[in-house]
Amino acid sequence: MSDPYERSAEYLDIMIAEAWEPLAPALTDVLSRVRAETGAVVDLGAGSGRGVRVICDALPQAPVLAVEPSAAMRAVLLARVHEDDRLRGRVTVLPGDCASADWPDGVRAVVALNVIGHLPPGERRVLWSRAARQLAPGGVLVFNVTRPYAPVEVERVRMARVVIGELEYEGWASARPTGPDEVTWRMDYRVLRRGEPVGGTSVQYRWWVATVEELAAEAAGAGLRLGAAGDPGLGLCVVEHAKEAPTSNS
């Protein structure tokens, strides 16, 4: 399988920094209220490790399994873990994806931020089933849902701009419908020096769309209950065993 992040990993960590400013405290709040008191935390699609850092701060004693399929992104993730004494002894970085990663039973939480759109419906059902089997009592699966919720065109927009030294980094995004339940995103990364381009790249990847209601129905089929958490604009969702009291804000 080709790695959609092979050419864009150079830019992704700095491009998502601003988005993590509201997301980090919201994730911290969810994890601080998880009723399961033991077990590892699995970070699916851990990317460059920004979420790993939040998890370790929110649950200081929990071991973390950081699962990332992209070798390019794992390089950034490993560097972040290695340079921090607090993370190095607790975080295990594993190659793999939602279906192939080896999780233990009785996990305290599964975090899958910016991941659900990468999963076609069949793989989403695998994720719900694994969560139903392997979450500890009182454990949660946390993920977010982002627009679009249907296969519609998304006009090109600048999603991030970062200045480092003499260089300006820009990230632009657009999407077009490519199926009854999917879009294809095009991400353009530009590097400018004094207004002149000196580097950059463009990548495309498939993204499966669904509403929160559709995802809730899928999760319910596996015996799970979905609720919302945090600011509605973040699209943060918490899934837990249906027979347990809710951890989310709903």
Brief summary of the model shown:
One of its GO terms (molecular function) is methyltransferase activity. The protein has 250 residues and is an alpha/beta fold.
Average predicted local confidence, pLDDT: 94
CATH topology of the largest domain: Rossmann fold
- Report the CATH C-level class of the largest domain: Alpha Beta
Morphology:
globular
Multimeric state: single chain
Return residue spans where pLDDT drops below 50 for at least 5 consecutive residues.
Answer: none
Number of strands: 11
> Which radius of gyration do the C-alpha atoms yield?
18 Å
How does the SSE layout of this entry go?
Blueprint: H1 9-15, H2 17-32, E1 41-44, H3 50-58, E2 64-67, H4 71-82, H5 85-88, E3 91-94, E4 107-112, H6 121-134, E5 135-144, E6 154-164, E7 167-179, E8 182-193, E9 196-208, H7 212-221, E10 224-229, E11 236-241
Parallel strand pairs: 1-2, 1-4, 2-3, 4-5
Antiparallel strand pairs: 5-11, 6-7, 7-8, 8-9, 10-11
GO molecular function: methyltransferase activity
Pfam families: Methyltransf_25
InterPro entries: Methyltransf_25 (IPR041698), SAM-dependent_MTases_sf (IPR029063)
Keyword list:
2 domains; methyltransferase activity; SAM-dependent_MTases_sf; Methyltransf_25; alpha/beta; Methyltransferase domain-containing protein; 250 residues; Rossmann fold
Describe this protein's structure.
Residues 41-139 form the Methyltransferase domain. It comes from Streptomyces pactum. InterPro entries: Methyltransf_25, SAM-dependent_MTases_sf. With 250 residues, the chain is of the alpha/beta class. It folds into two domains: 9-145 and 210-241, Vaccinia Virus protein VP39 (Rossmann fold); 154-208, S-adenosyl-L-methionine-dependent methyltransferases, CATH 2.20.130. Helix content is 29%, strand content 36%. It is built from seven helices and eleven strands. β4 (107-112), α6 and β5 form a beta-alpha-beta unit. α2 (17-32) runs parallel beside α3. The longest helix has 16 residues, at 17-32. The N and C termini lie far apart (39 Å). The model has no long low-confidence stretch (mean pLDDT 94).
